[in-house]
């Protein structure tokens, strides 16, 4: 009941602060918007899109996710509420809110109940059907205008995507909205290495070697969009809203390096949005930041968790108990033919020796990884300091040029005629 009451509670406009809406387009892998996305007060992501492994491209901050009916079902399982594999497999960040669209009240209730049981820090809120119905006419009317102006035809129907629904909602709730990762439906052709036929900043040059329809792989990533949506039409609508100042539409621009990391940045100096330097020892095209969310970091995190759990491992405790019983039996004079119990003790002793050897190896590995990471971070910090100084100098030069321009314009103003 509490979940339903909160979901129906009224929301005051403009209370979300600066907002970033992050879609799933593969074009995100061509830019470095991570810092700019993180600079917003509210960051809403669509469905199951991950951040781990892609922080360089999409940032790490998550305050909200919007689920369609398919992903509402995927996150809810028919298994025991205490063991939901979907919630372990897909992202579910701490203290965030899930906005559910198009799911039935029953499906919403199932997910809300499961979250209350297993993840009380996550709130599920079901959006009214009006959120969808109010977003649809805008797309229909704009598509008609595009067709009358000679654009199109566009693939797909007029059913608004979850991202379009979220954008319409956020324009009412946020002081500003920056949109990332939307467009292009032609990406389904890009994923196969085919020309798109769309004029989108040289996108035709992109091939399947470095881009996919979604920016991530696995986790239910698709090779092409759902035909009930028209992502080409939505992209044109986003572009029009951006041109009119209703939002900032951030998409990759070929050759515009600064735009491809600074678009939508909420820091006027741009310093906090600067991309981190990728060490020369790493692949320059990686999507993660070494030391934060790359595969080796995930392995290190899992290794540390395993080491912490080892002290409470029931199997290890059981093996030690069996070993104690065996030693007591031997010391009590039972030395004849080796019984099955003695053989079991020997196996447990061998197992414990393997655990000890593995533990020593893990400690050495962790120490080497720590030393390597420390050296890499020191190198990164030094390079980042140089970049920040260059950016400060650039900002100072821009301010100086603006002042000089104003002085020049003032000098051109004719003096008033003598009275």
UniProtKB/TrEMBL annotation:
It is found in: Golgi apparatus membrane. Keywords: Coiled coil, Glycoprotein, Glycosyltransferase, Golgi apparatus, Membrane, Signal-anchor, Transferase, Transmembrane, Transmembrane helix. It is a single-pass type II membrane protein. Residues 362-411 form a coiled coil. One of its GO terms (molecular function) is sialyltransferase activity. GO terms for cellular component: Golgi membrane. CDD domains: GT29. Pfam families: Glyco_transf_29. Gene3D superfamilies: Glycosyl transferase family 29. InterPro entries: Glyco_trans_29, Glycosyltr_29_Sialyltrsf, GT29-like_sf. Belongs to the glycosyltransferase 29 family. This is Uncharacterized protein. It comes from Polyblepharides amylifera.
């Amino acid at each position: 009941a509490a979940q339903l009451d909160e979901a129906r509670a009224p929301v005051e406009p403009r209370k979300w602060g600066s907002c970033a809406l992050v879609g799933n387009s593969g074009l995100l892998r061509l830019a470095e918007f991570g810092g700019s996305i993180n600079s917003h007060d509210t960051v809403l992501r669509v469905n199951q899109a991950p951040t781990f492994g892609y922080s360089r491209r999409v940032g790490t901050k998550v305050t909200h996710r919007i689920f369609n009916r398919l992903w509402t079902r995927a996150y809810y399982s028919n298994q025991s509420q205490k063991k939901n594999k979907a919630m372990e497999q897909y992202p579910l960040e701490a203290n965030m809110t899930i906005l559910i669209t198009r799911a039935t009240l029953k499906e919403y209730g199932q997910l809300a109940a499961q979250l209350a049981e297993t993840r009380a820090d996550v709130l599920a809120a079901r959006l009214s059907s009006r959120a969808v119905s109010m977003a649809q006419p805008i797309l229909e009317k704009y598509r008609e205008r595009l067709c009358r102006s000679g654009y199109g035809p566009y693939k797909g129907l007029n059913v608004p995507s979850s991202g379009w629904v979220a954008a319409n909602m956020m324009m009412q709730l946020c002081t500003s909205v920056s949109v990332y990762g939307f467009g292009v439906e032609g990406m389904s052709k890009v994923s196969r290495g085919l020309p798109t036929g769309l004029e989108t900043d040289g996108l035709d040059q992109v091939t399947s070697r470095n881009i996919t329809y979604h920016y991530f792989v696995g986790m239910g990533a698709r090779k092409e969009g759902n035909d009930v949506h028209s992502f080409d039409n939505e992209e044109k609508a986003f572009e029009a809203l951006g041109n009119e100042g209703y939002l900032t539409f951030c998409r990759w621009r070929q050759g515009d390096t600064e735009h491809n990391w600074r678009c939508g940045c909420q820091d006027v100096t741009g310093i906090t949005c600067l991309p981190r330097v990728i060490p020369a020892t790493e692949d320059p095209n990686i999507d993660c930041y070494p030391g934060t969310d790359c595969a080796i970091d995930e392995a290190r995190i899992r290794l540390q968790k395993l080491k912490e759990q080892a002290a409470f491992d029931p199997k290890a405790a059981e093996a030690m108990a069996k070993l104690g019983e065996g030693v007591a039996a031997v010391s009590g004079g039972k030395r004849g033919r080796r019984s099955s119990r003695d053989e079991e003790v020997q196996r447990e002793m061998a197992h414990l020796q393997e655990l000890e050897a593995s533990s020593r190896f893990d400690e050495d590995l962790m120490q080497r990884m720590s030393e390597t990471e420390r050296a890499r971070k020191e190198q990164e910090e030094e390079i980042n300091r140089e970049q920040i100084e260059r950016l400060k100098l650039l900002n100072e030069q821009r301010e100086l040029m603006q002042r000089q321009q104003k002085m020049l314009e003032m000098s051109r103003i004719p003096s008033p005629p003598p009275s």
